[in-house]
Amino acid sequence: MTVLYLTEQGSRLSREGHCLVVSREGNVMARVPAGLVEQVVVFGNISITTPALTYLLRHGVDCIFLSQDGHYFGRVVSSSSRFGLLRQAQYRALSDDGLRLRVARSIVCGKLDNYLRYLACWNGGLADLAVLREMRARAAASLDLVTLRGLEGMATAAYFAAFRPLVPSHLAFLRRNKRPPKDPVNSLLSLGYTLLAYVSWSAVEQVGLDVFGGFLHATVYSRPSLALDLIEELRTLVDDFVLGAVREGEYDWRDFQVRNGGVFLSDEARKRYLRAFQEHVLERQIPHPFQQAPVMVRRALELQARQVADIVLGRRQAYEPIALWADGR
């Protein structure tokens, strides 16, 4: 079974017997046996004929609709869809304390491994790396979520203590802070993490999981906990983007406004940031444990969401995080 991705703008999906046909301007681009398709994902300006859509829905195949750049619009769910069963399995898994802890531990350890690798790229201070290594070892052996979350918080503080000397001193970055950010670097980091979380949200919705049911992050009203879980191991991509930008002098105090006790990008600087973030983070090719070739960040998050789906359905036993920076910068 496979997922059929439709990305060619102006193309059309139709049905011929038991085959799905992708064409553009009358030219057939692909012909796929419909029985092999478990989900259809449509990116942007692509049409599906009524016979094709009817056939998919009769056979329990959901259709997901995204913008061309991957923002989630919605889905058409078959009356025989497994969508509800997947979410039932997700919440059964979340009620299994042992399973939830194992997945959360893997997420945290993956995040801390990437912290260590990223700092090693910058020849991070040995003392700070020693603290991180200790937190990583303790996280791997933690026996409950409360302890694990505490260790993750301490490790993050140690990471940003090592990160601080890499930032130009005039930007007044002392430590990680948010809600609201108190300096330009924290403002850039917060915006980047938020944008990455929305991409993760789209990936979770695409797969069919409930974005509000996370393993590491607690279930809190309106918090997209699972989307936040999945970005933990990728946070250093945002850090690298921000650090590179400020060290190159692309952002300075003049690009920010101070209001409501926080520091925020001006409208013009935000537009510049969004363009650069798309190019340097979302379109970045990164390694993935289940792919032979690097994939873009959007695709990597979708693959991680599908890995979670396999875990809750009992198809996989363990969550494997993405290892970044394995070969240096």
Tell me what the structure shows.
With 329 residues, this protein is of the alpha/beta class. The protein folds into two domains: 2-81, CRISPR-associated endonuclease Cas1, N-terminal domain (Ribosomal Protein L15, Chain: K, domain 2), CATH 3.100.10; 86-312, Up-down Bundle (Four Helix Bundle (Hemerythrin (Met), subunit A)). It has ten helices and twelve strands. It has helices at residues 50-58, 83-94, 97-121, 126-140, 145-163, 184-207, 225-231, 235-247, 267-282, 297-312; strands at residues 2-6, 12-16, 19-24, 27-33, 37-43, 47-48, 62-66, 72-76, 256-259, 262-265, 285-286, 295-296. The strands form four sheets. The chain has a four-stranded mixed β-sheet with strand order 1-5-7-8, with helices on both faces. A four-stranded mixed β-sheet has the order 4-3-2-6. Strands 9-10 form a two-stranded antiparallel sheet. α3 (97-121) packs parallel to α5. The longest helix is centred in the first third of the chain and has 25 residues, at 97-121. The two termini are 36 Å apart. The mean pLDDT is 90.
What number of structural domains do the residues give? 2
Helix tally equals 10
The SSE string, one letter per element, is EEEEEEHEEHHHHHHHEEHEEH
Percent range of helical residues: 40-55%
Termini Cα gap: 36 Å
Report the mean per-residue pLDDT as an integer.
Answer: 90
Q: What is the name of the CATH architecture of the largest domain?
A: Up-down Bundle
Instruction: Note poorly predicted spans.
Output: none
Strand content: 15-25%
CATH fold label of the largest domain: Four Helix Bundle (Hemerythrin (Met), subunit A)
Number of DSSP E strands: 12
Given helix and strand content, the structural type is alpha/beta
> Strands across the major sheet, in which order?
1-5-7-8
Rg, alpha carbons: 22 Å
* Largest sheet entry: 4 strands, mixed
Overall shape: globular
Name of the CATH superfamily of the largest domain: CRISPR-associated endonuclease Cas1, C-terminal domain
Write down the CATH class of the largest domain.
Mainly Alpha
